[in-house]
Amino acid sequence: MTGRIKRALSLFMAAGLISLAGCSDAAMGTDSLLRPPRATGDKAAIQDIISSEAGGSYNLKYPQKGENRSAITMRNEDTDNEYVLALYSTENDTKLNVSVIVYDKKQWKCLGTYSNNASGVDRVMFYDINGDKKEEILIGWTSYNTTQKSLTAYLMDTDEVYEMSIDETYDELVVFDITDDQSDDIILLSLSTQEKPSVATLLQYSDTDKRPVGKYSLELDSDVISFSNILVGDVAVNTNAEVMNTSSAARAEPVKTSAASGDEGKTSDPSKPAENSEPAEASSKPAENSEPAETSSKPPENSEPAEASSKPPENSEPAEASSKPAENSKSSESSRTESGPPQQSSKESSEEQTSSSDGSKVLVTGSLNKKGIILDCKRNDNTFCTQMIYYDNLNDELTDPLDRTPETGAFTNPTIRTEAIFSRDIDNDGVIEVPAVSQMNASLDENGANVCNLTSWSSFNACENKMSIVKNTVMNLKDGYYFVMPERWVGRVTARSDPETRETSFYLWNSKTASPGDKLLTIFRFNEQQWNENKHAGLILLEISPENSKAIYAGQLFMTNAEDELNLSEKELKSSVFAI
Q1: Three-class SS of residue 579?
Q2: Which residues pair with 437 in a beta bridge?
Q3: What share of the chain is helix, strand, coil (3-state, %, to 5)?
Q4: Are residues 188 and 230 in contact, defined by beta-carbon separation less than 8 angstroms?
Q5: Which helix (H) or strand (E) holds 231?
Q6: Could you give the angle at which helices 4-19 and 41-54 cross, rounded to 10 degrees?
């Protein structure tokens, strides 16, 4: 069976293209009418089945988003579970159809065909959502009368396919194992409407039920109008261990113990974007009943940031808000019918087996990072914020430690910012950091537009309920690079950017006169012609390469006697500038 389906599908699609050669784009559009030519072999068998299910000619329907963009998708090639998924509409019916065609006993047959009252296909995904070690088919559907999408799951059995309808709608969708129970979870993200606030909904399935057996809801910031960047991976450091009773599905009373550093178990790739409409800048992000803690790294005196500019960032047109209500719950709530939350996976932890008083085994796990979702969102006032979603095992709920105070329930997100700066693993430690932006020191008579912002990148410690700054940077979004501020510079150095000359300069900050002092560094951006015409005297070439840019970057160092320890070396400069 090696390569049979791949060859068949390539021939099948080629045949479709040939049949469309005489049709105009205007007449056919994206979902072109396929009038299959006669063929032989596997291609003919698959083609005949689709034609039979459609009752004649049909239009192939292509997913608009996600990794799987084909109207006809082959899965599990060269295995006993080989099958083809076909998406199409017919000439005489406005409904969209999905057919599952399997290879069984040396022949192709249709295992099931289902119709949906949708106008298009949003995305197609394949995940194990019920823990049976086999993939289920997830299809998101679009409709003409709403921006929100619907979702259907299809469970394949030996002789048939079961349709599992999902009542909740979504604006964005993430599927991954957020509860760490060895099966994938569905997380639906819905923007606010006049009737409902924004909400994240987690759905869980079991291998015996064809409906959700667990449902959790978390209210998000309802001022959010679009999700700009979505990331999944390790979102929080979790340095304490938990003790769990493994004699039943229920979790034992947790016991916190000391553990090694939080660097173990970082296996997720935080740069990987979640499945979403627009691939995030590598990426995708809700509110918890937890007050945001103060950062552990406080800038020195006289470094209080001025009020950030309210000028909206470039290229940040708001997305349309959804007009359809989403299922919501004001607090994290569970309606799951199983006997408790899933246990932590032991694959990313240190483990020790002991015996409890009732003779059952107790599993001690430690040094686990929290896996979750990071959402960088655009708000209705043209600002941006970050929301963090993860599953809290101890309280059996979805939570966001960045976004809500327990006393008032009000949103007090410290990450609200005017610049479109998105979360990333800034220090390459495996945990995603979130940005907070403040204006650098400036005198009262300065042009605020040229004053640079300081972006502080923090990671969240889930055990201490505290954000800790890991790096401070100056982000030059227009020129495509950022500069990592040396710790000794924070609060003592300020920066100015000139959009005309494409220069960013760093100065000593004179706290007595509240004004910039001696210059320490200038970073230049040149195009090729400018660089070739420049004499390069005193310039240090910076070897960074922003994506899709032919720009050349260089730095110039200036020595000062006023604060000798703040002088920068050439080696330090070269290791402090990075492409965004």
Answers
A1: strand
A2: 455
A3: 10, 40, 50
A4: no
A5: strand 224-237
A6: 60
